UniProtKB/TrEMBL annotation:
Substrate binds at residues 7, 45, 114. It holds the Pfam family Transthyretin. Its EC number is 3.5.2.17. Catalyzes the hydrolysis of 5-hydroxyisourate (HIU) to 2-oxo-4-hydroxy-4-carboxy-5-ureidoimidazoline (OHCU). Residues 4-116 form the Transthyretin/hydroxyisourate hydrolase domain. This is 5-hydroxyisourate hydrolase.
């Protein structure tokens, strides 16, 4: 059974990104369907897969991380507008029976991602 998971690591502090809201979308051409929202736990992960089973289909997806809210809550001073605020990550699912793990490594001025396991 396929599933989609994520986690957030605050690389500036070397700790999990707790309390980050993530919106989940399925993309189809010009259509962007909101599938739901999740919030990272104390380990920077979601308590359950974001999507799993029949909910995960072949196609394009977008995870939208509300990083600016997290950075503000951490007391990280920055000029407004922040360099990073909303971070959209778009990716494709070619085999819905697989596990797609899409983490976010975050600091106030950079981020990266990869397909994890």
């Amino acid at each position: 059974m396929g599933r989609l998971t994520t986690h957030v690591l605050d690389t500036a502090k070397g700790q999990p990104g707790q309390g980050i809201t993530i919106d989940v979308f399925r993309l189809s051409g010009d259509t962007r369907e909101h599938l739901g929202s999740v919030i990272t736990n104390s380990d920077g992960r979601c308590d359950a897969p974001i999507l799993e089973g029949d909910a995960l289909m072949v196609g394009e997806y977008e995870l939208v991380f509300h990083a600016g809210d997290y950075l503000r809550a951490q007391g990280i001073e920055a000029h407004e507008p922040r360099f990073l605020d909303i971070i959209p990550l778009r990716f494709g699912v070619v085999d819905a029976s697989q596990h797609y793990h899409v983490p976010l490594l975050l600091s106030p001025y950079s981020y990266s991602t990869y397909r994890g396991s």
